[in-house]
Amino acid sequence: xxxxxxxxxxxxxxxxxxxxxxxxxxxxxxxxxxxxxxxxxxxxxxxxxxxxxxxxxxxxxxxxxxxxxxxxxxxxxxxxxxxxxxxxxxxxxxxxxxxxxxxxxxxxxxxxxxxxxxxxxxxxxxxxxxxxxxxxxxxxxxxxxxxxxxxxxxxxxxxxxxxxxxxxxxxxxxxxxxxxxxxxxxxxxxxxxxxxxxxxxxxxxxxxxxxxxxxxxxxxxxxxxxxxxxxxxxxxxxxxxxxxxxxxxxxxxxxxxxxxxxxxxxxxxxxxxxxxxxxxxxxxxxxxxxxxxxxxxxxxxxxxxxxxxxxxxxxxx
Amino acid sequence: xxxxxxxxxxxxxxxxxxxxxxxxxxxxxxxxxxxxxxxxxxxxxxxxxxxxxxxxxxxxxxxxxxxxxxxxxxxxxxxxxxxxxxxxxxxxxxxxxxxx
Amino acid sequence: xxxxxxxxxxxxxxxxxxxxxxxxxxxxxxxxxxxxxxxxxxxxxxxxxxxxxxxxxxxxxxxxxxxxxxxxxxxxxxxxxxxxxxxxxxxxxxxxxxxxxxxxxxxxxxxxxxxxxxxxxxxxxxxxxxxxxxxxxxxxxxxxxxxxxxxxxxxxxxxxxxxxxxxxxxx
Lengths: 317, 100, 171
Prior knowledge:
The complex is a heterotrimer of chains A (317), B (100) and C (171).
Chain A: H1 2-37, H2 53-63, H3 74-91, H4 109-117, H5 120-130, H6 134-165, H7 170-175, H8 182-185, H9 187-200, H10 226-250, H11 262-282, H12 288-316
Chain B: H1 4-24, H2 28-53, H3 57-87
Helix pairs in contact in B: 1-2, 2-3
Chain C: H1 2-22, H2 26-46, H3 50-75, H4 87-110, H5 117-128, H6 133-143, H7 146-167
Helix pairs in contact in C: 1-2, 2-3
């Protein structure tokens, strides 16, 4: 009993430390990648080829002065970044990194993931409101409305593979992909899931609420120092969560040609992140009404059609 | 093993707290939130009974109660928004045009 | 092993519900209500209804509370209203609350009828044959409770249309 708790704690520390480090280095990876795609070099000065850049950034944000605006609601202002960051880490407790390494093998794993992700929106709404300025509030509302809508499409896109796997347990979903990955059976669901995941994490092409040319900086206008670092990290942590869920549900998690192992999972997550950053370097951003129109008028009917077709084909075949 | 009666006692207390909230607060949104507290206490009671009887009925009721709570919250808040446009107040005592 | 968790989450639920009804700032009260919903979800897990716990977090804490928070922030209830609570009403509320709590405790102490352990175990085994809470839930919802399910979906449709029409500026 105590041994189990101890093992769980060790696993938690490993996963938490690894994810934090990876999230910090994802910022560096993205700047390098986008730089090279735009025929420039990216960070080069701090350390060899700029490898110490995240550490320098982290140190700078840590040592910056922590300003709280006078009109701000202090308690909610300080709580909001935590609400944005913590759900991303909590979701990692149900993701199977390899067949033996999952912190909590919940029977309702996938539902837990969707439910906890919906809590990240609270951080944004509270940040927008607690800043006490009109720009932040409007940016927070826009961002929250976008995230809530695309949360629904995310859930619907996941119902297709769920029907194929027949269980909400993440390990069962991975094991059900032993012969063929679900991407072969559910390509539409994957495309919908990926687009919804991009919108969920406020990435380009859906990052109007936090673009610098719109509403100053959206909901994190008034944030500086460590709290801003939390929002920044929360975005990258959420990106990694979306890629991890896609890897587990559509691409067979830790399975791969050859021996199944954690290396396949990490490879898939990195490929997903690379693709997301590639999209950032390439696409322009959508206007807000185009964004919502795309979601509700195109993606929602497609998601419903996908569920219907999956059910029909499962019944006939 | 926690006997089911403790869950029922806890649910009863939360229900009473919600009831006191409905009766004493003057802000419309606070009243709605106290009603949500009462609905949560009822959900807890249903699930405790479902476990004590080994029956699934309790849990079925809970899903319908959650759905109806969502419906009531949506319509209630829409009414509050519409009301706020007319009178710019959220105090229940001041919304009394229909009073004799 | 269950007792520490029950005490933590039970006390958490009680204290946060007390804080919900006593806060002056409506946003703080909404956040404490969120905490109450979380503690309730934890208690559902302890009562072996994990699917309902996930549904509670997803719908109640995720969607309904988001709706409340949105409306509070839209109507901009920032100025903490100086609430004039009538002294008479506070006392009346306290008396009614105490009476209700006393009634609950009398019923609990007298004893609640539960089926004998054997029938309870048999019913539980019949449910576990489905393979877990989610599966049992799904089967029961779509066989025994199909009609209420359809009625509730119509109710949701009506509520959606109603809320949009009521809150619109001009129809």
